[in-house]
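Practice set, problem 2.
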Amino acid sequence: MILRPYSNAGVLIYCIAMNDLNDDEKKALKAFRKRLKMNQMEDDSRLGHGPLTGAKSTIVAIRPPAGFGATVWEALADKGYLKRDSGGFYELVPGK
C-alpha cells in the first residue's frame, strides 16, 4: 500500500494508491462499490422511510456482483479492501 500526499484547500491529505491491485481486482472493487451504492439508494427510496426523519440505509454488506470469481473477492478481503461477513456477504472497509 502506497500513501500519496496531496493538498486540498491547504490541508495535507494522504490517499491510498491502489497499486497493489491488478486490473481484475480494480474492476471487481469498482463493481462492488457501485452495487453497494445502488442497493443503499434503493433501500433509501422505499416508501417506508420518511423523508424528514433523516434515516439512512442500514445496508452495509452485500453479496459480491456476479462476473468475478470467488478468488478475486477473497484476494480483495486478504488485502484489506473488503471485510468478510457471514453467508458469503462482504462489507467495504471504510477508508479504502
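Problem 2, part (b): a different protein.
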Amino acid sequence: MIYDLDGKTFRSVANSANGEVSAETLFHYRQQGDIVTAAYEGGSIRRGQLLARVLPGGRLDMRYHHLNAAGEFMLGQCLSTPERLPDGRLRFKETWQWLSGDRSAGTSEIEEVRPASGDSATASTA
C-alpha cells in the first residue's frame, strides 16, 4: 500500500489493557521517503517519539519511547499494518511489545484524524 503520512494526525481507537496509549493520545506524523517519525502525547503519555521505516507492502517497523504520567520512561517496538478505511482515511493495526517494564506484548489500532472543517488539507493523499 502506498501512502504519505507527512503532516497527518492519528488517534488510538483500540489498545490492549497493558498499553498506555488511549483515545486522548494524538500522534503527529512526518515522513521522508521510507523514514517515518512521530511525536505523541495525551492521556497518560506526557511526551513520546517514534521512529519507523516503511517495509515492502507499507507496513511500519518502528521503535518508540515515551515518558508517562508516573514519570517512567517506557520503550517498545511495533509492527503496524496499514489499511484504507471506506472514507479514505488510514488505519494501522499494530502488534507491539514493551522493551522495558514487564516486556509484555499487545495489539492496538490507530486511525487518521479528519482535518478540522475549513482546513485545506485533505484527509488522505493516496
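Answer key, part (b): Residues 120-126 have pLDDT under 50 and may be disordered. The chain has one domain: 9-112.
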